[in-house]
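[Archive record]
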Amino acid sequence: MRQLGEVIRVTRSRNFLIKLKFSLKDDIKNYKVVSEDLFLVGIVSDIIGPVHEPYALVKILIPLDKAHEYVGKKLYLVEKKEEGRLIKYPND
């Protein structure tokens, strides 16, 4: 698991806009995104912006009223090999 970046805002199309903390070497589309307490909050849907300062659009999987609480907070990218054991789902 690695830090994806900080949530800049919640878009009208129900996405988190996140300024990435790292440069992209691999395609991270469809990777799961978790909060600091390892709750699943979204899935990377697209990468936008300039190559040297990319942003991620993360499709929000939690209620929209709770999503606004994540603005300014750091979210984390779950590597494919870690998917099964790290993620907490809201009903757990």
